[in-house]
Specification:
The protein has about 250 residues and is of the alpha/beta class. It is about 40% helix and about 25% strand. It has a 6-stranded mixed β-sheet, sandwiched between helices.
């Protein structure tokens, strides 16, 4: 059962130099407890759209709302809003000189200005949630790629965000490490964590997604349940893309 709208975009556009339209008139709502999954060809604007929602990339036109507050209005404290949005990057950006615990508590102390002990407690709690508590004092070089990405997820969780945006969290991992990250996301889904995920992990999508969103050429082409896309996608473009994804999944 979903609740109130957590995040919404209305007619969002991002245009780069030479009239390259990365995001084209995209409107989307994510409510409490929903897990929406964006998929589509490389270069279709998925990551740019996610960055616009997090206000890491400022849209050129349109509106972004977080809990009803328009983040595009002049005078809004964007940094305060960003603190309520968890973001997990495609590439695992961890500080090599800090332990897993140090990486997770860094933003709590320096962005949210938490006292040291409170930040440590919150960071340990987040690492516990991704089953990495016993690895808290290990450095990134001592962790597998999957463990490093789970530290990235813990870093997002520790801030107790309203929503977590994940940009292809498994794409930089070796195939044998993908499972542990997917298991972590599956656990978060069971707890009702609100997430918007860019991913092509189709078995995971079929299991947990409230809605799948097919993105192409900077815009939403088609939306539907996982079953819709697995059985009868409406657009020819989505049909071809799903056929390739399913074939790839079966061959792995």
């Amino acid at each position: 059962m979903t609740g109130q709208v957590v995040m919404e975009s209305r007619h969002l556009w991002k245009i780069y130099e030479k009239h390259l339209i990365a995001v084209k008139d995209v409107s989307l709502k994510i409510s409490e407890g929903e897990i929406k999954l964006i998929f589509g060809p490389s270069g279709s604007g998925k990551s740019t759209f996610l960055r616009c929602l997090a206000m890491l990339t400022i849209p050129d036109k349109g509106e972004v709302f977080l809990r009803g507050e328009n983040l595009m209005v002049q005078g809004v404290d964007v940094n305060k809003a960003r603190a309520k949005i968890g973001f997990v990057f495609q590439h695992i950006w961890l500080f090599r000189h800090l332990t897993a615990l140090g990486n997770v508590e860094l933003a709590l102390r320096h962005v949210l200005k938490m006292p040291k002990e409170e930040a440590r407690e919150k960071a340990l709690e987040a690492l516990r949630e991704v089953k990495l508590e016993e690895w808290a004092h290990h450095y990134p070089a001592q962790l597998s790629g999957g463990q490093q990405q789970r530290v990235g997820i813990a870093r997002a969780l520790a801030r107790n965000p309203d929503i977590i945006l994940l940009d292809e969290p498994t794409s930089a991992l070796d195939p044998e490490l993908i499972g542990e990250v997917i298991d972590t996301l599956r656990d978060l889904a069971k707890k009702g964590t609100t997430m918007l995920i860019v991913s092509h992990e189709m078995p995971f999508a079929r299991e947990v997604a409230s809605e799948m969103i097919f993105f192409d050429e900077g815009r939403i082409v088609e939306t539907g349940t996982p079953e819709h896309f697995f059985t009868e996608p409406g657009s020819e473009r989505a049909q071809k893309f799903m056929a390739r994804l399913i074939k790839k999944t079966r061959s792995e």
